Amino acid sequence: MSFKEIIGQDIAKQILQNGLREHKISHAYLFSGPAGSGQMTMALTFAKAIFCTECVDDACGECLECRKVEHGNHPDIHIIAPDGASIKIEQIRDLQRIFSYRKESKHPKVYIIDQAEKMTVQAANSLLKFLEEPPSPAVAILITDNGQALLPTIQSRSQKVPFQAMNMKVMLQALSDEGYPEQLARCAVHLAAGLDECREILQQNWFAEIRNVMLQLGKESMGKGSASLITAQQKLFKGGLGDYLDRLFDLFHLWFKDMIYASYDQHESIVFIDQLEFISKVATARSTEEWVSCMALAAESKKKLRFHVNGQLCLEQFLIGIQGG
């Protein structure tokens, strides 16, 4: 991957490539933006460009240094991610030990801290000292979806590189060019902030299955009776899809929004375009306020999952709730 191959995030690319061209690489960068918007890909591309022996402001992908990065075995790149729920002080100390061994090189070492907001207070304070006095030339790349959660002193010592959720039409076109099914890609771009996250979703076998189950439940919930409860029991919980209820509620949220779009003949905005005939037929069966209420119920049900409410109970209450409109 090179900068020119990365779609979107033009501001981030400009900041990083300007630094490379002008030989003014900061000792620390703060990549801040929505999770899944491509920060890790950009970080590794930047590291590749720093080490690349052929290009000034990009990665050639061909030289030995670039190939080492691509294969994940470059000795001067170190990636830290949460160990369990947090990044611990021991992880930062290990990093400091690795960097204490000096080596002759015209390039600095690079370390990437993913989900940097999950550093413990002790880890953050230890990192701060490391940022101020690295034992050898180093470039830090801190990746976070919440830059304000980091210590103000770390923020002030890092060059901010902003990331934004990518344009959905751009993502959909890129995914289509890569051969992903349109009906799945149209859902994925509404659930992810960037192409990396979209691809990750689309490559999961369960995603197409959970979409199909949601469509069946959505159609069954338009009538009365217990058909949707039976389907949920058989296809979700007995079918091994019970771990993906959060995505199910996300898809329901889009489904109800499609009903509103159809009510106002905004067919170009509909996500489940392969279900247009059914959506158009039933959209006016309920008022906009009722569909909005269903959307709110989906959001509330997903929130309950985060607070560890029993998944099956949560879904059953949701299905009963949306049947009543």
Automatic annotation (TrEMBL):
Its EC number is 2.7.7.7. SUPFAM superfamilies: P-loop containing nucleoside triphosphate hydrolases. It is an enzyme of class 2 (transferase). The keyword Nucleotidyltransferase applies. Gene3D superfamilies: P-loop containing nucleotide triphosphate hydrolases. Pfam families: DNA_pol3_delta2. The keyword Lipoprotein does not apply. GO terms for molecular function: DNA-directed DNA polymerase activity. Keywords: Nucleotidyltransferase, Transferase. This is DNA polymerase-3 subunit delta. It comes from Paenibacillus sediminis.
